[in-house]
Design goal:
single chain, Ferritin, 6 helices, disordered N terminus, binds fe (ii) ion
């Protein structure tokens, strides 16, 4: 008979990871699945809270340059939401689950809160906050890639696709702040997610 799941697991589930072959192959390959699930929850927590904070940050991109910057922030905002959507199902496949309470979820975030700066009328101060959030995301998904490379191809595939978009987001904000060319050209549509789209279960 299968054991009850862990504290984070869905209480209605009666199957433990010991009975799931897709989890066992990952453990057998040398991944600490519990540790990985914790990292994934923190990672998607950062994506979800970033999506929220970017809504506020985008709103405050005002002034003569504001409208163009808003469009770039909007792409990053929706793609970060896509990252939450793309990785969350993997947490459940690995026997984990999101915290029942969204407050706990926000506190677990792998990255600091991307608060609106006090001097937000200087648009560069807003872009600095956006840049720091992207740089934190690169580090966080990089750790997941490191942990799963050659061991858990499914998690690795999602994480590395997310990371490719985070790297692009960092480059966009570096260009806006310092004029460092990023080869940025507008997405074909808002939140296109050219790397992550195949892992999305939603199409909106
Ligand atoms: Fe993201
Ligand atoms: Fe991002």
């Amino acid at each position: 008979m299968a054991k009850k799941s862990s504290k984070r697991g869905n209480p209605s589930m009666s199957i433990s990871n010991k009975d799931v072959v897709a989890v066992q192959v990952v453990e057998k390959a040398g991944v600490n699945v519990k540790k990985l699930v914790d990292m994934l929850i923190r990672g998607v927590g950062a994506e979800f809270t970033t999506y929220y904070y970017y809504t506020i940050l985008r709103m405050h991109c005002t002034g003569l340059e504001g409208e163009g910057i808003k469009e770039i922030v909007e792409d990053a905002r929706i793609e970060d939401r896509n990252h939450f959507e793309a990785m969350t199902p993997r947490i459940y496949e690995l026997g984990g689950s999101l915290p029942r309470d969204i407050r706990e979820f926000a506190d677990l975030s792998a990255c600091p809160d991307a608060y609106l700066p006090k001097d937000w009328t200087d648009i560069k101060e807003i872009i600095k906050v956006l840049l720091a959030a992207e740089q934190c995301a690169i580090k966080s998904w990089g750790q997941v890639c490191e942990m799963t490379y050659g061991k858990d191809p499914r998690t690795y595939d999602i994480a590395q696709n997310i990371m490719q978009e985070e790297i692009e987001h960092e480059a966009w904000f570096l260009e806006l702040l310092y004029g460092r060319p990023s080869a940025h050209f507008r997405r074909r549509f808002i939140g296109e997610s050219p790397h992550v789209h195949k892992q999305l279960h939603t199409t909106h």
